[in-house]
Amino acid sequence: MKVRQIIVLSVLMAALASCELEVSDNGNLDGFWHLEKVDTLQTGGTSDLSDRLLFWSVQMNLLELSDRSEGNGFLLLRFEQNDGSLHVHTPTRFDGKNTDLPIDDLQQLAPFGIQSLDETFRIIMLSSGRMVLEGDRLRLSFSKM
Known about the structure:
- Strand 3 and strand 4 form a beta hairpin.
- The longest helix has 17 residues, at 2-18.
- Strands 1-3-4-5-6-8-9-10 form an 8-stranded antiparallel β-barrel.
- It has 1 helix and 10 strands, in the order H-E-E-E-E-E-E-E-E-E-E.
- The protein has one helix spanning 2-18; strands at 31-40, 46-48, 54-59, 62-67, 74-82, 85-94, 101-102, 118-126, 130-134, 138-144.
């Protein structure tokens, strides 16, 4: 009986030791964010988007952009967060059939407040429920769902 327990315990320990859990260090950035407002920095203009279904979803090193009212796929971007900034880049499109279709048309990113294929935002505020990002031209305000 003891030999069997030792064998089972050894197999269990080996199995657990071989598992590698990926853990995000994104802190409050991880989650499902609703884009509610876009401010134009030069003119002071404001666009209220609270009734639109525009979302940023953040997990690990991927940012998913989706317009839930359209239902025609979503966009994926890579990102890095450090020193109070969020750098987004390498946009691709997923349309339900195809993935990793590179994006070179800024019109696809514009509804989500992204003005460049490679853009860095300053993180003005980031809490468990609110986020404000500021680029060169726009300030984006989000609430976490």
